[in-house]
Amino acid sequence: SGQPPGKPELIRCRSPEKETFTCWWKPGSDGGLPNNYIFFYNKEGEDEFHECPDYTTAGPNSCYFSKKHTSIWRTYNFTIKAMNEIGSTASDSYYVDVANIVQPDPPENLSLEFEKKVYGEYLLLKWSPPLLGDLRSGWLTLDYELRIKPEEGQVWEKIFVGHRTTYKMYSLNPGERYVAQVRCRSDHGLWSDWSPKSYIKLQKDVRVKD
Amino acid sequence: CQVSLGDLFDRAVKLSHYIHSLSAEIFNEFDERYTQGRGFIAKAVNSCHTSSLTTPEDKEQAQQIHHEDLLNLVLSVLRSWNDPLLHLASEVRRIKEAPDTILWKAVEIEAQNKRLLEGMERIVGRVHPSDLGNEVYSRWPGLPSLQLADEDSRLFAFYNLLHCLRRDSNKIDNYLKLLKCRLIHDSNC
């Protein structure tokens, strides 16, 4: 007994550094039987279809494309085929350009330091780019966005800081404990997740007002 | 006094970043408003008028190409967009209920693309003067399709043009950032 498999669905594709990428799919119903999946793709300008080069690196129900198999600015066409002993079912066709699925890892090492200078007192936020990604050659360029709030507060203040990896904040409340995070994106791609939270407790006698 | 090559590249990268930002926005806005669910992406394959220009498609290829060749490629792609952007700015007005934001972006992209082309010609003039003569570019045959009576065909023509614009503006932006790091910062940005 049993049924043909349900239709699989492509749920997401992501490139963390515009050099490789991964796609994930969600299986349909299994029809009460063990199923196999084949991930087919072809690239813009090519007729023949290829099979996924690597089903394992990125975990179950995924296809990983290493540098060798990754082209930017060319549309990939994907189809996933589910099979069991009763029959097979193919997914819809999906179209992806790697240029449009770049989502970097979060920035690293966010630190908050209170600084007292001749010209004023401020909170200095510093962070570093994600480890994954070639910024040095200019292949990947990142914009950053900060968010900060009093730890007990509800509303985040968001600040877009462009390419910089440091930011001075002047308008804060003495004696308050603050929490901050930072994220990044490549050009006009997808924002990364927020970095882990960083905290600082300001002294009561600091003068951080504008 | 003469503007430094570094400043020329700074201006060019700011412009290319801005143009790609506008190109991504106008594509998304047009797609959301006019072409959702029409499956145009499947037809917009292998259909950019600039696909005859062989351009690097990954980091390795982009890093192996000589900077003069990459500069000339950028020039060729930019020149290939002069004509279509001119007509996009005028034809987009005929789209039914085209919002001002799409109209404004089409006009702004055309203007900024011209500025970037002028800037690039100055850069190439500095880096490799003898190359300025050869005006290689890809001709755009798409004006009649933007004026078709059949709405579906006409919308696809706009979709395809904006899809290619988003792609090519991203290429130009990426190549310029690479060139800037290579030529100005010794590949150590």
UniProtKB/TrEMBL annotation, chain B:
Pfam families: Hormone_1. Keywords: Disulfide bond, Hormone, Secreted. InterPro entries: 4_helix_cytokine-like_core, Somatotropin/Prolactin, Somatotropin_CS. PROSITE patterns: SOMATOTROPIN_1, SOMATOTROPIN_2. The keyword Cell inner membrane does not apply. One of its GO terms (cellular component) is extracellular space. The keyword Disulfide bond applies. One of its GO terms (molecular function) is hormone activity. One of its GO terms (biological process) is cell surface receptor signaling pathway. It is found in: Secreted. It comes from the Eukaryota. Belongs to the somatotropin/prolactin family. This is Prolactin. It comes from Anolis carolinensis (Green anole). The gene is PRL.
